[in-house]
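Today's session is about reading a structure prediction critically. Students often jump straight to the picture, but the first step is always the sequence itself: look for stretches that repeat, for charged clusters, for runs of hydrophobic residues. Only then move on to the predicted structure, which in these notes is written as discrete structure tokens rather than atom positions. Here is the chain we will use throughout the hour.
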Amino acid sequence: MPNVGAELASVPFGKMIYDMASAIARSQIALDKASIQLVKVLASTTFDYVPDVVETLTPNPRQVTGPTGPLVDASGNPVMVTGVQVTADVGPSFPLTLLQAGVNPTFYAFTNSTIEVKMSITSTQESSNTLDVGVDVTASADFLFASGSISTHVNFSSANKYSYSVTGSSSMSTTLAPVPPPKNMMPRFFLVNAMDPTKISISQS
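Below is the predicted structure for this chain, in token form.
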């Protein structure tokens, strides 16, 4: 009869854990390289940045027009509404990198990994025995004496049925979560405020 413990011991847990850890390590290296490359792309890709847009609202009175033309009141004065006119003054644009604009690269890390193994072991055994006993009796008699015979027969049969099956399945899952970029990898930004030459200030972010 197969040993259930031996079946469980034959599951290659060690190899499964090693394969999963090795795959995660290779994937982590590839993800880090891609994120580092993304930092370079963001730092060298520029766009025309518009620093400000000034919208000026000025009155724009006009006479209301109805179905038959301009409307007037009972005294014949035109019916006026205080409209508004919006003029936009767009500041001059200048090149700005995506990294300066706040588009930060995304780094990923594997935070949780799970290996799940399911095994189903089924063992059935059936036994059946059959015993058949028969007795045959014959007798004869005449004028002087009687005679007879007795015979017996025994039939015995035995049958054993045995079945054993093992089914198994395994699944692996891992969680990939975004993490902040390494501090030393991100460039430092210095802002020099030189709008007033007598009061130049430098701030770092």
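Discussion point for the tutorial: The chain has a mean pLDDT of 78.
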